[in-house]
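REVIEWER CHECKLIST
Item 1: Sequence provided? yes
Item 2: Single chain? yes
Item 3: Sequence as submitted:
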Amino acid sequence: MSEFLSFDTETHLIQPGILAPPIVCASFAYRDGNPPVKGFCSSLESVGAERVRETMEWVEHRLNEEKWIWTGANIAYDWGCVLALRPDLMWLIWEAYKTARVFDVQIACTLNAIHDGRMSDGDLYRYDGSKIQSGRYSLDEVVKEVLNRGDAKKNDRFRLSYALLEDLPISAWPWDAQAYPVDDVVNPLECVERMVEKPYNNLHALPVQCHAAFSIHLGAIWGLRTDPARVDEFEKEITSHVRELTQFAKAQGFMRATVKKRPDELSVHEAVVKEAVFKAYEGNPPTTPTGSVSLSREALEESGDAVLERFAEVGKWSKLKTYIPTLREAAVAPLNPRCNPLLSTGRVSQDGLLLMIPRQPAKDKDKKVIPNTNVRQCFCTRPGCVLCSCDYAAVELSTLAQVCIWTVGSSELGDAINAGKDPHCVLGADLLGIAYEEFYHRHKVLKEKEIGLIRQAGKGGNFGFPGMMQPPAFVVYQKKQGFSVCGWFFHDGKCGEKREPHEVQGSESMLCVRCVEQAAVIRDAYLKRWREVPRYWKWIMSELHSNSAITQFVCEITRGEPSGPAAANNQFQGLAAYGAKLAVIQMTEEMYLDRSSPLFGSRLPNFIHDETMCEHPLDNLHARAYRQAAVMKEQMKLVVPDVAINVEPAAMYYWDKEAEAVHDADGKLIPWTPKAA
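Item 4: Structure as written out by the authors:
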């Protein structure tokens, strides 16, 4: 019979490049009779190497006993710290995950919140409707929700200071310093017992989600590096643009000094900018949800006022400037990504810089690339290694097609993918009223610019409309990506000449009339081409009408109270997210444990949605890269059995979204390098 064993560590503080810092003490709690809980703390550093050995042997012994289910809060972090001391325990820890013997109370609460409809994208809510600002559970939030207690951190005076105590035996620690580690294991133990007794919802999905979180955390410990010379060039370029634009804004009265002691620090003079926006829109400006004049970048760019349009550039360049400290830090010590392992669809998100990195470098007013402004290209590989990105080819089109096969019996989109056709070219050909073969030839062989723009319209439609998106929202989304919808079809520079107000996600936006009209054209073509999609939407709405909830295929995670669009997106996005997590788990096993795999010794420092970026030693690069791609394909096929899945590796010395597979004369994969400008 399984028993719960709660486990936690108190460590030195996390520092740049050190996501698995030295352990000061380890604490444990388990049932010793009924109902007493036995909790105890064991110092690792303060009593020398002998206690370290004894404590790790105690952990090893319990890992070997299959009756124990290890529980904790963010327990992946604690296992990472253990492995820094005892890397040989990887086999046993991995086996505990594989056999569903790890129970993370934070992930369990997240799964339950998804079931209840209290999680939407990155927003997380308590039962009383108040928002958890961090967007994720802490142990304190778990204890409040599960045990209805607010005292989880009552003894936390030394929570961030345990390194100060490592030279003292535990008996000499202040009483609250002794109590806190025990609290941090007794609380999770009582929580997990209540969760199982209640029981909490979606717990059947917990083992895979915990396993994926651990795998991602191991990669994050390895981290990413930047090239200091490239960071220098990036900083020089960005700082120059920020200085020039802020002085321009100051001259217009749009920015002003607000702190007398630091006159060079400028802030936006909102009243002046609002007045200028009001005049530019002739008294009918776009507004915020509260009714105030919008100062968003889109509002400024669409104003038709050259001064406001240039002022909009201040925000873009100022945002790029915020990346500089992190890029500098990563040139000295690896950047360790911090991830939220579970969003409402099953996707992973990342905190900080990596999630928000622009896909492309900055461009000037003529759409020409400005050198040294690509944030990604600052990231480099370690000596003797190479980065390798493997990205699924439009995987959410494959998962949408698979979901349609399961729900309505067929998918023309799936048929096109299985026939080797480019779905974006298929839709683009429909938009022009020509045959697919002609469109594809003109795009792929003749490389006609106009055809490329129409294909982009098809790509926008294929990715934008599966989730019931309406034309105005489509226009707003494409604007954020840097696209003009009517600009795909007309090349007269008249986008935005006539605008009308539209409400999108609670805010009023003044949108180009022609853009909205062309978005409707794309949507109509999309629904006529992929005829299964309207039937899929009908199935979605029927499910919501019957259950007020939707359950994902394969992983069977139930999401409560979603809107129709959220439910539609949830099914195919969730399927892709689950397949990608299975791939990360398998890849991690081969990297750390399987000496027969080409991946052994490689690392996975970055995982974003459906892209894995590994750092491979240069030796045997071809086999490593193609095994990375093969694992991704194999695992995704477990959840998408009826639609083709394509993955291609791209090796590079510097991170670049433009990288593609390059082979030498013998057909072996070699690192891609960008073409000279």
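Item 5: Key structural point noted by reviewer: Confidence is low (pLDDT under 50) at residues 45-49.
Item 6: Recommendation: ____
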